[in-house]
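1st attempt posting a full record on here, be nice pls
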Amino acid sequence: MQSATLLLKKIVRSSVLPVAAQHGMKRDLFPLSRTLSLSLCVKQDNSCKPSEKLDLDAWKKVMKSGLQEEVSETVSEPQELSSLAAARETLEMWRLAGRLVPENVSDEQLKTFMECPSKSAKKKYLKYLYLKELYKKNDKRKMEEKRERRLEAQEQTSKTDETKKSPFLCLWASTMDKAYNWRAAQSMIFGQPLVFDMSYEKDMSVREVANTVKQLVQSEGCNRKAVDPFHIHFCNFKDDSLYHREFLKHYKEAWGKLLITVTEQCYTEVFPKDKLVYLTADSPKVMKTFDHDKIYIVGSMVDKSIKRGVSLARAKRLGLETAALPLDKYLLWNTGAKNLTLDQMMQILLTLKDTADWKKALEFVPKRKYCGFVAKPVSELKKTLDLVNTLKLGKRREEVQKQFAKNYPKK
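the predicted structure (as tokens):
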């Protein structure tokens, strides 16, 4: 009997336990191995009770349940994979049909797509993913374009630096600078004077004074490069004023070397009054031709709020002649004030001095301020428009009278 029990233990260990280990079953979940080995406690009198038989049916049920769990786990994974593949195929079909479908869809996005309750919800979700992908592509493209532009700008700056360092260009710049200085020096002796009135510091804020000085610096540069430059005079200019400090910021050490005349005196003390003409947009007199014998005065003022009549009142107090540019005669002006910047005035006066052509001179007026040049004066056009309007109103008045007579006939 002992040999039989040993054989039974070996059979159980060799057959049942490896199968249970393969199917992931624990020993405490499989207690029948111990019952199989120990239930056959045969007595010495060779008598076995019927209740001590092997419970093979329970053992089969446990084995089948373990196998079914494993099979269900192995089957569920292919089902999920097959459903994801089917979803990807539907997405490809929708893409071929011309619907908004993103190019790259992750597994998580596919799962959320499958969980959508309706077809419209699926379409909306796919459209959201498509737009999101499109925005990412656009951002990436913009970043690449910026990078290319930055690289091109760096290459251009490197090229310009190389050209600047070339000895020929340096020699050319120095010779041209000397030529410009020679012209400006000649204009101080033989040139026509042009006066900038620097007495408007109290009428402007600090920012407006800074803008005025910037425009004056540009005006001085235009005049210096002209064929026949003006002799620039800064009159009513006081030391240690806002004007002076702003000029020092721009010119620094070159301020004392400028080929212009700076004086604290008024222009009426420097020049005769009969030759002075104050250019202001508020003047009732229109400038017809450029007079080379006159000395024109330009008010050095930039006002954001457009204070009307300030320069005209100053000219009247001093008893000076005034004039305005003929903008209405040559330009079809839009709504707005007819004030120009100081550098624009300088370019207009230089062109008039060289060519005496108003159309060429008024090309320096910003194009946003006018519609175009006119063949006839604007005053004549206004007269014709007023005549047409009066004729229209007259016809309309007759029509109204006839309609009133029809509606309310006399008894």
